[in-house]
Amino acid sequence: METVSRFFNPPEDSFFLFGPRGTGKSTWLKSNYPDAHWVNLNNPDEYRELSARPERLRNLLDGRKSGDRKVVVIDEGQKLPEILGLIHALIEEKKGWQFILTGSSARKLKRTGIDLLAGRAVLRSFHPFLASELGAFFSLEQALKTGCLPLVCAAKRPDEVLATYIGIYMSEEVKMEGIVRNIGGFSRFLEAISFSQGAVLNVANVARDCQVGQRTVVGFVSVLEDLLLSFRLPVFSRKAVRALVAHPKFYFFDAGVYRSIRPTGPLDNPSEIDGATLEGLIAQHLRAWAALRGKRTDLFYWRTRAGSEVDFIVYSEDVFAAIEVKNTDKVRSDDLGGLCAFIEEYPQATALLLYRGRQRLRKKNVLYMPVEEFLARLRPDAAMKDVMAVSNMQF
After folding, report:
1. CATH of 15-125, one of 3.40.640.10, 3.40.50.300, 2.30.110.10, 3.60.40.10
2. Which of 207, 281, 294, 345 is most buried by its number of CB atoms within 10 A?
3. 0.85 exceeded by the pTM?
């Protein structure tokens, strides 16, 4: 695959760049900061030297030529949180250094060091490809099969890369860092929680399926989120009139990764798996779009105790949209129940139904839009009304 331009717009000051393995953080940084001083903590020699004497970083920087670009990349910075104290001091000296710390796990930094920078470095995130980044390279069918992870998209045999992807985390993050003691239980948990993709997370059911305690499952979910492999959407409850459920929905960060973990067999319904995959693909796109657009944009879902549900609620100062996803090319009137209930309660919202058909339609004040068209238009520099290309809508 040819080089794909990313929409990521870096801060001018120091920043943390978090993202799961394989999202292209290092590739992007090497392309955009070719003259940076690079510290790779995946390299055993560099890790050993700096872990023994973190102050050696100062010596390395003092040895740089005066005309050199004053950018320092600390790759996989979560492996050595002790170095953050020194980086904080170097930033405070105001000598013009810009530090970029990458990480594929927020666990150590959250627990032991991230506050040491006291807000001196902002947080940014890297995500799988957006369809609009891939352009002509994007295929919806392929994305539903293998996802949008750059590491996978660039592979000659993406299925094989996906098959080993979680194994890399299991060996290099979970086992080596001692994050989880019961590796077997964690492996069973991964399979069990894959049945929760796009659904309200029921800890008791997952615990029963993987034969561990509920507290252990809560801890395992936290591990997945710290490793940036999953996320949860809360319920939208602003000025709620109807009684709502309280628990969040669960998603893996990439549809292909979900598909590689989800067990399949004679008792599994392919359409159920396909539907969860499509919903997860939309979720990861909305999440990346929200992170990249430069203004706070929150994602929720909506579900009443009576059973009315909308897959995604996008809420920002300039966006209020309710989005339902259907893995079908024909939508029945019954499928609009959740959207209609939501816009009845929140008439300020715009209702959008994404489906596998090819025509734009409008029924009951709901815009039907083909999934592929929506994903192709979803760019961080485009407002939601431009994505939908409906000029008379108010957001």
Report:
1. 3.40.50.300
2. 281
3. yes
